User: Fold these one by one.
Assistant:
Number 1:
Amino acid sequence: MTVGRVRWTICWLLFITTTVNYIDRNALSVLKTTLQRPLEQGGLALTDVDYGWITFAFTAAYAAFPSLIGLLVDRFGVRLGMAAALLVWSLAATAHGLVGSVIGFVLMRFVLGFAEAANFPASIKAVAMWFPQKERALATGLFNAGTALGVIASPVTVWLAARHGWQSAFVAVGAIGLIWLVVWMRNFQTPDEHARLSAEELAYIRADQPAPGERIKLPWTTLLRYREIWPFLIAKFLSDPVWWFFLFWLPSYLDHERGQNPLASAGMVALIYAGSSAGSIVGGWLSGALIGRGWSVGRARMLTMGLAALCMPGAIVAYYTDSFIVCVALIGLCTACHQAWSANLYTTATDLFPAKVSAAVVGLGTSAGGLGGMFMTLLAALVVQWTGKQQYVFVAAGLLHIASWLLFAVWFRGRFVQVDIDRSTDTRRAHRPLLISGAVVSLLGVSLAVWINANWALCVAAANLSGAAQAMTAAAGVALLGAALLYAGKARPR
């Protein structure tokens, strides 16, 4: 039987959309040094803490809204959900060039984070709709490689800023998304709607998902009651911050601690992230190849993720080595391994949950990853402000993936069984683990807030007023997370 390739065209659409997503979000990090210049030199005189506050706004929105957006994508479909997100995030990226203050950047960055949160829930849902299980990790790896291409394009952003001012650079990257929006609307369809999809390819796609899966509305509070979702959420919380750290802070590290100028830093970042594209694709291919050889889905995913996690301590060696070439090579290896890890971690959401709720599950995972990224961004800002170096964050970046893999290994022991979502859990009874964890997390958040308030002068001395305010905001976020878990765990009548 000859199987067509329409599904790979869909993967190409997702790849370009992800590339546009990362071009828009990465523009700020590569222009950080430019924006830190004094006003008379064409900058905005941003401090490291100002920059931390601006990125904090992005990650706070990215953490807060994906769960809601995932539910909407499941309800209204990938085509409309992604189109709305593309429109909003492109306008927000363009608007960066129209503001001239820290407050303006904070607001635009918040809107950008809100809209860009839709990309991965929608894309993973599209992969679940269009690909059989053995090809999903590869398809995810391919479209996820767009994250690296978006970063690789960063030298162009720096060049535009040098030639025409930083304002024109933001306007240009925003315009790219508006152009791609037209292409997206004209070309993306579901398998059941696509005119060029052959019956043979449709049968191939549906081989391990006979029912297309109707659109449903399932509250996030119910999804949190499934124990299968928690390793995914915790792994996203622990490992995503490493990517955020490299994305937001790598250019300034190469500039300030390795002595590279902004354009050279952008070039090194592009080289590092070129390797991450290969990692994303190879990681997706490897687990699919193992499944094709008869391995169980769980064993194939776990082996691939484990190999990636074992390479991540290279980040620690990268910081302490005196060789700049070795440093760049090891950071490149880490970004490649993170993307190999990410391609498989995302795919576990569709291994463990059916396609009809995949956007909601991935949305919750994106929220968890965004929350972790929010704290990593805050931590990096405070550490740099306090010590002038990023060494402690590099150490954390080298260990978090291993911790995440160990959680998966203990929790599943290599056996992935998909949840029967149609046999919903009984929400009329309280969920004791959620209530206990919610109480613990709430207590932790309140305790952090009390400690920060009691040591306010110390926090201000360490990281200025805005840094202390960020720390208090983070503590409040922990308390709110605990409250959300308590709400999800309480009994409610049908």
Number 2:
Amino acid sequence: MTRQFLFVISTLLVTSISASAQDVSMFGNTPSRNMVSDETSILSEWDVATGENVLWSQPVGSQAYGGPVVGNGRVYVGTNNEGRRDPAIEGDKGVVMAFESTSGDFLWQMVHPKLTSGRVNDWPLQGVCSTAFMEGDRIYYISNEAHIVCLDARGFKDGENNGPFTDEEFTDDNSGDIIWSYDMIGELDVFPHNLATGSPLIVGDVLYTLTSNGVDEGHVNIPSPFSPDFIAVDKNTGELLWESNPVGENVLHGAWTNPAYGVINGRAQVIFAGGNGVIYSLDAETGDLIWEFDCNPKDAEWILGGRGTRNNVLATPVIYDNKVYIGVGQDPEHGEAPGHFYAIDATGTGDVTDTHTLWHRGGEDFYRTMSTAAITDDVLYISSLSGFLHALDPETGEEFWTYDAFAAVWGSPYVVDGKVFLGDEDGDIVVLRAGQEMEVIGEYNLGAAIYCTPVAQDGVLYILTRNRIWAFQEGAKSDPF
């Protein structure tokens, strides 16, 4: 057997075993990042004014973009320090909070200082924007300091400071416990623009992540063009295994998305969106480039401030049936504009831009997006920043229906138990019947913007708004909110 064959088999077995044990939780539910869950008995209505079907709710910070991630009886979110869980910890910080999943009890928090370079690398009040990867008794995420962090999921409540990292600033029962931390700025000289983000992905013993390398404060120069765009590290130690730098000096703005993983034609691949608007497929074992696809027309032009026709990618690629589905967008501050959504044949090699487009929607048919697709039962659901939720044929791109949320959408559609959930910037969650005919089941407001994607586990639906985490369950009853 070849080394590559053994690598593929071992990673497939580990992924399969972990998923069946239900001790793994991540952005997109599986390494393919398809926003579909096989959970059942998920409710479709609630009333926060009366507490009907509300299991619990807890405040977080004033801005929350990371998570929620649920597993092994805990819920993890990324936020800032404006909630002041510990009154002794003052000022702007990046924070990861852990709650008990059935009661909502606060368990612990991990607090990160801000980078001294300021908003060019660590935007004020944004906190930790990375959605964690949870596996067993470990969680992994990217901090606002551009560190890959591995935490003990139990924090210091187990009474132990697990190592080899033992220099935590806070070590009381309500604090997080670092196992190891890898400094991408210190070790790789990367230059995250505005903020380091991204949800890391683990397959077997390997953690994959983007580095968030980007432009300088003037949006003109690339301070670290030769630093890697994408890396793989050992999940147990944080040791760098390999790095990849296909974008180089072609970064348009920043790189804030997440990788996906799949085995295509027998070859394990990690697929990520570069900061130049190009999708790259890398060999999961070696980091060697397999194929690339430019997600912009040949005549597209990048103009500072988002006024041009070239877009970068803020969405996460989805791997489904040997295809990759991806949409393009820009920083929401650059406004709405026509975008593109592609279905790509992922079986090629080299530059497949001109040869492997299966179908494409663009112009007035599809606007800029930051959302990740959900594909199930012959329907693809994808939303745009402009607030439109499209239900498409995944084979042809033909549109079945479109729902208008009348508000900006940053998160992604989430399909579970025959329903589609989608949150928007007005704080509304719409629940639709999954299928080729549009049917609105209900629309509910949670009082604050929803920038993240809902998650369901063990019959409970979790929704993170800008400043609160909510847990909903059929038959639950809480005090009114």
Number 3:
Amino acid sequence: MNSWRNAAFNAARWPWRVFRRLSKYAIVILLSVVFGFTLYAVLALPDLKPWHTEVLDEEFSALRDGNLDFDGYLKLEARLFDAMRLRVAAWDHSDEAYVYSRYNADGNVNRLVEGAAYNRSFRLAADTPIGQALLLHGLSDSPYSMKALADSLHTRGFEVTVLRLPGHGTFPSAMTQMTLADWTAAVRLAARDVASRTPPGRPFYLGGYSTGGTLALQYALDALDDGSLRKPDRILLVSPAIEVPDVAVIANVLDLLSSVPLPVLQKVHWQEIGVEYDPYKFNSFAINATRQVSRATRKLQASLVRAMKSGGMERMPPIITWQSVVDSTVGASGVADVLYANLHGPANRLVLFDVNRRRALGSIQRPGTSGLIERLSQGKRSYMLDVVVNRSEQTDDVSVRQLAPDGGIGVRETSLHWPETLVSLSHVAMPFPPDDPVYGLNPGSGRNGIPSIGSWLYRGENGAVTISLGSLTRPRSNPFWQLVDEDIAALVEADRSGFAH
């Protein structure tokens, strides 16, 4: 009898013992990751500069400033940039890192961008706009990344507002403090203002690039059930962040030891510490940035699941997305399998930019890059799929294959072609035209005698320059931007006619 009781007792305790043992293993692994990353950050990352450590108190906070309207947001933003200028004036201007940085008002970078006005929110006004648009930039970017799309809409009669998301445009240190709640509150107050400027019978567009696309979609999903939010009439997405690698969840603990008040541990805030030469994008990247975009994408995915179960996806506005099939930042499968797989109707369109399929490049291209396009082309879809692709393997000329949900196939010929040395587009290239003065790849791109960052193509030994050689070969602008511009023209014309009636 006692042996039976002991066996029963041991059997009851077995799950608890397994749980305790697994918990111990998990804690050991967690601590190993935290201490391992801390050691890497302290020993391997470059020294911090003032723009990594000094924090501006005037940045928008949802907790403190959530009741502001958009005009109040702009006034707070003006104070933020005034405070930034005062901080920069107090730095050591003889430091070489400062001399060649975006913060040197007399340096080549600022000559190129003429003071970098588009680090701040801006509005392209119209006297009698046919509609209103709100555009949102990506993580570590600035409103400048939406400038070309804003110009395209504005040329067609839209008034366009581009919002600077909290944590951007000033010092990279702001990324260590920003939160998803800050972004959400800022998007809502800007959308409220833009919607109030949209008369009845006129369209309201909402668009975003990368993380800005995440926030645009989240707002649209929230608007399905919240009558206080004006639902957009159309959503424009450029390389949206729909999902990020599962490993991003580790960002919740990686910088755990940065809270210890030791100067050397401040490096633990950072995944990457880069030279800040780019006038409109931070090259340094904070752990908190990964944490917040991970939270944003997980929240978006949960909202999409709820909308699918409740039938809300049927009430979503039409969505058009421009996406490179090779995207090392957010990937391309998320937008296809998580978002578009649950959209219905040909008004929704996914435009995929394929890699350069010229036969001569086949030996250096990574196998499998055609997998997503082949799968989507052959599978059952309820949305339009456009594929920007070589006309044939023997030519750099480009055409657009248009695949309808009913199986119909059309071809849109273009006058465009792949640049000779370009193998693919990239995440950071998508929103910029090839003649962009800051990121253009066309010969002669630039301003004031300064060549554009996108036209840099230098060679050298590792360690010869202060930036990674990989950053010089990743394309920074889109040679096929004309197709995006033509898509915008067609959408606006269709909506102009539709709303007029």
Number 4:
Amino acid sequence: MEDTLIKRPSDCSVLVVDDEAMLCNLLADTLQDSYRVTSCQSGRQALRLIEENDFDLVIADLKLKDIPGIDVLRSAKEKDDFTELMVITGYASLESASRAIMLGVSAYLTKPLSLADLILQVEKAIATRIFHLKSVSLMQQSDTFAPHIKDHLNNMTSLYHFARKLMLSLELPEITRVILHEINEKMGSTFSILAMNYLNYAEIAAMPRTGEISETAIRNIITANWDNTFNIFDKNMFEQGDIPFRIFKGRRGQTASMENLRPVGVQLSLMGQTIGSLLIFRDKNIASTPEENQFLYVFTSFVSSVIEHGYIDLQAKLQARTDGLTGVSNHRSFHETLAREISRADRNKSQCALVIIDIDDFKAINDCYGHLVGDAVIKDLCGRITSMVRKGDTFARQGGEEFSLILPETSLDGAITIAERVCLRVNSLPFTYAQTKVPYTISLGLSIYNGQKPRAKDALIADADKALYTSKKTGKNRVSVC
């Protein structure tokens, strides 16, 4: 084994890139006692340094003044795939996080930064780097190993890289993207499709190895391979377009031909229950080896558990934000959304509207028909209103028989029009329960938030409450404004 490949942490080189001079110097000073640290304050300078030096770890801000920080990170990976990457940024988004994860970033830290957390993450990254270098050294000696041992080591390395990326991927879109990217690279496939049907969630994701692929092409391919792989879905739902698609772009490059491809499909299962399918397509002249088939089974066994946790996490988050009886947003989600829309109105100097809705004489409905009918009336109201609201509007249950409607980017006249339509929709047709007609009406209170004249969220809610009180006192089944 070559000693040059086995480093001590103090031998490792770290590049810090941040266009904030004070922060850049602070990070360098923090790390220089433990590592060989180089720092710079521009992306282009970082690219030159990466070309001229071998860095074990590159730490970069995603939002540099001259070029995107992601380009700096990509350059480091293109030179040495085992280089560790870390992001420190005050500019975080789902897209930038996904791109960073795909590059194999080991930590994604946001400003303001805890130096103690930074030091810990750097220690982990350097330990991982040394682990990689030892693995590379071992692989360089693999000429003395039997071919099946070399293949096994390669598969272990692939699964290790894959597991590291998934540990950073907390949201299902990133999990799905990483799975498709990894299997395309490992199997040399032209494209791959991941179909999932678990916990009442059904969706299909696809990614070519390079370039792009259309949903129409994917639909045709799925139809052609339905019986073997995709019968986990209700075919009528698929044909009617009720199963959502997620199409990812592949690596940069020309989209490969879809002709003369051989499909290889593997089911994803948990405790004997099928939760999805993975289908890869590659040149029909390339036959799968026993080792590749074995890797596919191990790979899908691994990702099945990851997908399960992703959907459980999604379900838990959804339940935390939705009302258990009706499925609409709950009180907590309402306040989060209203605060967000107020902030947007402040930034854009625009308007948004808040409508508070209450079922008239709801106690009498419960007393006359019973609580089961009362719950059915609440569900009916939610169904009527959610079918009317625009994309981007938020309808929430505050509790009991009280609801709220948040209307972003809406003027007073527009809000009144929407509120009156809702009121008319409810009182125009009685609710029927077990062949019994249960007529009911609602009262609405409306208030407008003006981003040019900011005020507290509680003041907006209080005004809408006052307007609702006016509707109740002046005859019910109407809209009032405050």
